[in-house]
Amino acid sequence: MAAQGATASRSGLRSALPLLAPAYLWLTVAIFLPLSAMVFFSFMTELPLSGKPWAFTLGNYAAFFSQSLYLTLLLASLRLGLVVTLWCIVIGYPAAYVLAKVLKGRSREAIFLLVILPFWSNGLVRIFSWAMVLREGGILDTALNAVLPFKINIDLMYSYPAVIIGLVHSYVPYMVLTCYLTLQAIDDSLIEAGRSLGASRLQVLKRVIIPLSMPGLVAGAALIFVPVVGSFMEPRILGGRTGTFYGTVIEDQFVAVFNWPLGAALSFILLAVVLIILAVASPVLRRAA
Amino acid sequence: MAGVQVSNVSRSFGAHKALDDVSIDFADGGFYALLGPSGSGKTTLLRQVAGFDFPDSGRISIGGESVERVPVEKRRIGMVFQNYALFPNMSVADNVAFGLSVRGEAKAVIASEVQRALDLVQLGKLGGRRPHQLSGGQRQRVALARAIVTKPRVLLLDEPLGALDKALRVDMQIELKRIQREIGITTIFVTHDQEEALTMSDRIGILRDGRLVQEGPPEEIYDQPKSEFAATFLGDANIFRGESTGNGIKLPDGTAIAAGAGAKLAAGAKASCAVRPERIRIATDVEAQDAANANMLKGQVSKRIFAGNNSTYFVERGGQTLKVIVQNTGIDRLAEGQDVVLRWAPESTVLIATS
Ligand SMILES: Nc1ncnc2c1ncn2[C@@H]1O[C@H](COP(=O)(O)OP(=O)(O)O)[C@@H](O)[C@H]1O
Ligand SMILES: [Mg+2]
Fold it and tell me: Which chain B residues are closer than 8 Å to A187 by Cβ?
């Protein structure tokens, strides 16, 4: 089937060209040109716009390897990406399963809306509302102390967990959506067939449902992992001093230090690392899917 | 192997009664066809036996063991779905192995059992294929192999041949029947195809609106239908409606139709008679006497459909169109518009009480 699709699309390419042209034009203008400029910048000593004299250098890339801080932060960011992705799977997959296989009609639509809502709200608003919930004397703290008979101090603000909570909240809809789509495509009769053959619900989940929804899990994970590794907004606002990650350092180079060349070089190193990870992981994941 | 008893089972969805007090005894080793129009509750009944759904009331037992509240995976049944429901992420062999593998059988045992099951359905060489690389008929065979490899107590099939084309369907009917005989498994077969039910099963149950209308061996239901519905749903029938004369009926125009010797019904009640089209003789000699075929009606041929080995005549008589099927003997070809006389034996007439 896949092979058929490929040959069909190849022969149909010529006629599809007029349809594809606007998309390619847009990609060229909006992504390729700025990106090329950034590649160019990353090899410069100074920003040409600043008026100072500049020259070509590999120094910006060398900086990454000369200071262990960058590597440490990159590893921390990769770990952050992994943890957030795992939490998104843990929370998002069951939610997608319930949406696709348990709920029907109205209640499905309502829950779907709740899951998608963070998607539609402004990122900053989302993060600052978490700040109000998580800080000492904030909503979570006050609510828990109102219910519990003893006094506890909940101050998650400016901590690693706060960053995780904020990021998971932002990105879990991706996982729910991609998993929902693959789960919904699984015919209920497959589940019934499994059970009629003596498999418990858990065995059906492990042997039939999860393998068949692997493409959704992989797509969701890729959609979440990549941006989370480079994220800076949630770490900065919710993480405070603990929120220094690779992404925040890149942001600093652009908005605070105005060292665009170094910022650009650090970005491309991140891009390379992420691409290598995806390339290494993809054969394994493809086999699983 | 075991028989299945369904006793007074009812199941409603909201206000709709999908099953209404159904009782059927599925004999051990028998091949039972559940026949009925779409929406009559066949699938619902099968799902109660399988354990995908539970009855509101009534009892179900498999092999004498009460199973109403036993979940599917504990009932030891085999099921074949209309859309095959093969696992697309597994090879044919892994599909067939699934039931044995979740049970924790040893690898060597699984391999030999799977091969035996695939050989039984004549797919011994295709174990390595993926389901999407198979034709419809082959998928059906894999689904069957997968369902029987676990040695279930009952085999349940929900319109398993519905998606196949006619020629393949006939092949599969023969094949399915052969396999069923070979392993002697109690089989419940859901179909809406009356011919399939007649040729394959040793008992048929006819469902309508969630009720069991009639059940018995195919010959009995065909020859002695107890309702107009059973008469017309299983095969073709000419239905005459009138008033009971005890062992026959009188049509509104006064014509009497005699039923077989066994027929008995209170005189004066509303009743109908059913006659199979192939039991009626059609002739042009109005005056001739035929003592054996005492029932006689005059009419006019309105249409003839030639089908090679037989012809179907549509005969207009008193505002009713009657159907007569005549074997092609090379003689007695009647033209449209011709006046004819229809004769048939009282023994070929079934008297049916109507309400
Ligand atoms: N899960 C269900 N929810 C609501 N109604 C149902 C459900 N399953 C079956 N029905 C209804 O019960 C009736 C019988 O259905 P079914 O057993 O599938 O008929 P058949 O298999 O004979 O075509 C139908 O009217 C159908 O709409
Ligand atoms: Mg059905």
Answer: 83, 85
